[in-house]
Amino acid sequence: MSFKFNIQQFYNQKSDGFRPYYNHENRFGRIAFIHLIGAFIIAPIFTYAMYRSDAPEIYMDLGIIYICTFPIYLLISWFVPFMRDKLVYLIILHVFISTYFSYRSLGELDFSSTAIFYFFAVYAISSIIIQRLYPAILYHVFVIILLLNSHDALDQSEISPFIVVGLFLVLGIASSFVIYVRRRLIITIEDYSEYLKTIMNNPGSGYVLIDISKTPTVLDYNTEALRVLDIDKSTINEAFFKNINEDEINNIRNLKIGNRHIKNVEFTKFNNKQYIELKTVVLPLKNSLFWLVNINDVTREVLKREELELKEKRYRNLYFRNKAGVFTLDKKTKIIDGNDSFFKMLEGTLKKSDRLFGLNLEVDWELILESLQASEKVNNYQTQYTLTSGVKKTFIFSWYIDEQTGYIEGSVIDLTSKEKASQALKQSEQKYRLIYEESNDAIMLLDGDHLIDVNRKAEELFGISRKDLLEKELFELSHDKSIKYQKNYRFEKAKLSKTRNIRFDWLFKGAEYIIEGEVSLIEVMIDNKLYYQCVIHDQTEQNKLGKEKLRAEVAEGMNIQLEEEIQERIKAETRLQEQFLRTRAIFESSSNTLLLTLSLDGNISSFNSHCDNYFRTSFDREIHEGELFMEYFEKLLTPTRVRLFRILIGQVKRGASIQYEVELRSEKRDFWMEIFMNPIFDTSGNVVEISLVAHDISEKKKASNAMESSLKEKEVLLKEIHHRVKNNLQVISSILNLQSSFVTDKNTLDILQESRNRIRSMAIIHENLYRTEDFSSIKFASYIKNLTHNLIASYSVNRKVILDIDLADVDLVLDQAIPCGLLLNELITNSLKYAWKDGENGIISIRLKEVKNIVELVIKDNGIGLPVEFEKMDSDTLGLQLVITLAEQLDAELKVDVKEGTEYLIKFENIKPISHV
Fold first, then answer.
1. How far apart, in whole angstroms, are the C-alpha atoms of residue 742 and residue 163?
2. pTM for the complete prediction?
3. What's the CA gap between 443 and 464, in Å, rounded?
4. Cα dist. 47→69, 101, 115, 245, 616 in Å?
5. pLDDT tens digits for 3-26?
6. By 3-state DSSP, what share of the chain in percent is helix, strand and coil, each rounded to 5?
């Protein structure tokens, strides 16, 4: 739908619709439409009137000329773009020419009174046609000049020239003033329209004007609304109302003036989430009520709020789930708050409101506080802290001042274990260095093949100083430096790619003899860089016996190690067996639960004894390990349930947990089973088996069905009771109605009518209870509407009574609904009978709301009011005494205001039904 089509549609709407100002004065369509009516409806009537009268022929000719020339003007303006908005000036030029020829005929008729009258008529019509300020002034001056130019002829006419010129002058000034006022109004409208257009198209805020009184329709919108909603104007009606459901439309339709309806809409744009806010208010225009929707892109605000919530969540996680101790102190070191890790470190020594630092650390705290005030934070403050148990711990603190609260936020790390580990590491390093230097084997550290460190034994073994050794490569120390030996060395070293430790024999050139060395090469990582540790054991002096002895010792050590490993394995197998037995005992001890596991192929892998006994007893079939689960149950389940069971097992294989109920049928009886299906994972997180845990819920199902049937019977019985009570009350009302037909006394008839109304008020309550699904209470707002319409129909015979109601959803129990309904009946009846004189129209206002379990009911009329004794509740009339009695029965507060009409305020506590507690 184009914008032009929208405007045309608005233009053609009925008078109570929305019509924005969109036209300029000289728009071709507007001028053409107006003068088409003038040329083909008014001008022919004018020409015919001139023909039938004794008017000069020139006026009939002018009408015919206008009829014939206007289509020419229309075609010129249509086909010549420059003349498109100049049609009105062609008409004005035509008016000047027609006036001139009319003036010529005036002279030919010697300025007779008839001729002056017809010329004045043409002058008046022309003044209306021009409708432009400056052309109108020019036209009036033009006519006055023509008249003044014929002053001598006017002296010979039947009418005084002063009167003639005065009439033309007065009409000219008056019409010019009217056109001036009209022009000012149009300029104001156009300026205001441009002003509104500028505001409406302001970037950042979209506006949509809608009418939802009947069919939801978009009446108008600005370009920013299209941009924010990311929709095209041709589909705005359909696309806009996709964001508002039927319930929200009803809420907006019931919106009060001054209230707002706000909704956030989420959608995806360019693969990014976008959020817009639709803020709707009621717009009361002159003709009707409309609704204006303000559309704002709140993506940044929503994302910022989500980011803030995420930051807050992260902060809470950081504060309360941090493994390090996090705490908050005041400037006296009193503990305001702390996470669990903080208090666990202190092992119950301190709690909230205790001081973290005592008098012995007060000097340290003063220094810390000065540092905090100077730099806002202090890091790595280490101290020894003695707990109440006597244990000394080493803590390292970090602090900073929160400028907003003035509190000191901090974190603490327990370095006690790390300090012990550090000391152990130092001792270990010293031991390692001692072993390294005092070892009987030559130990060297290699970077590739280059020596970067050697021990004292290496210097002695090769007879080369440490400095000279660090300038060599390992192969340079070899006794045999042949290519073959070098390849053998490279081959042995290449084995390190498969194992971190290799050992081989090598002959080295020693200081005094050839060294028969046993070489061990080990890969070591230092600062993420690979190095090699080379250990050379000198075996030259050892004989074969020594070597055998060494092998025996190594073998004995290996046997000992193997024996230890065997013992550990035996212990592990024992623990595993004990764990298996405990699990099996739990598995078999479930006397009321059927436990069964399946392999991924659907075979039964295990089941407990209760499961075996249950199926053997219930279905006369034994269950066996390795049997296909689905084949066993195909005879117990319908084909549909079998297919469903296969689908569920497939979902469990993918990691889902499922709970459902199923009915099993056997020759003996039907069973209801509640089944829990769960995947069993291995240590890698893969599903390896499926567990089924089942319970027989047949008795539970029977009890549930029996209870449901009993409840339905009681509901039907209770409905019938209310229905019969309502019918009995209707019978009583009918008897009173029949009785009234035999009574002629007006007072007696009034008493019978009031009694009927009171009975009807109770009957309506029972009718509402009969129709509702909840017998504990009734919707009192619906009851008030029904009762008031019946009463107004009964009493307002000679007057029109307008009902103004504002009722909230309030539920009342039967014990409160009946007296409150009778009370309402008495007060409304009293207003209908006495508030207005015969023939007067009136208004009855009823307000109902509930605030903090207090029901407030206001009944007000705009009638003549009541005497002062009614405000003090001193009257002894039956109706007032009945009102007081009913108010006491409700335990209600009753106030009466008789200053402007009559207003009753009733307040009482709402007794909620038991089912709502």
1. 83
2. 0.32
3. 14
4. 14, 16, 16, 60, 114
5. 333 433 433 444 445 555 555 667
6. 55, 25, 25
